Structures are given as C-alpha cells and as structure tokens.
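anyone seen this seq b4? input:
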Amino acid sequence: MRIQEPNRTGMINAYNKTGQTPVGKGRKLSMGKDEVNISAEALEMLKQVEDPDSPARREKIQRLKKQVEDGTYRVPSDKLADKILSFWRKL
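predicted toks r here
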C-alpha cells in the first residue's frame, strides 16, 4: 500500500513564505538593527562601583577571599533582610 502526500510540499512552501514581505521593483527590504539599551538604574549602579583596579578594592577582595577560605565570613542577617525587603518593595 502506498500513501501519497500531494499537499505536503505546498504546505511547507506556504509556511516558508509567511515571514517574507513582498518587495516591489526598485524597493529593497530593509533589515533591522541590533540595539543595546542600558537603563538609568544600571548607569547609576556603574557610577557607584569603585574602580576595579584601585588598591582599596583589591585589598577588600583579598580580605573577603581569605575570610571565605577560612570559614570566618558571615553575612549580617539584618543587612541581608533589609536588602531583600527593599528589592521586593520596589516591585
């Protein structure tokens, strides 16, 4: 028994053509551009960040790394709770 699918090719072609827009003579299809938009909040956060190459920042990073390695680093729970609450209140 042989089953033929006469409309299969037609359906694939119809599907492929749905994304195309008709272009007349002399008209070119313009392509969109990629864009990156940085929010005002992100720009403000960038201003608040210390210079990554500053000696004070490098010293702080080394101190925190040592605390984590030694197991002496502790996150103050009250500060953590304040940050979580302020985040959820903004939403």
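The CA atoms of residues 4 and 84 lie 62 Å apart. The mean pLDDT is 80. kinda curious what u guys think
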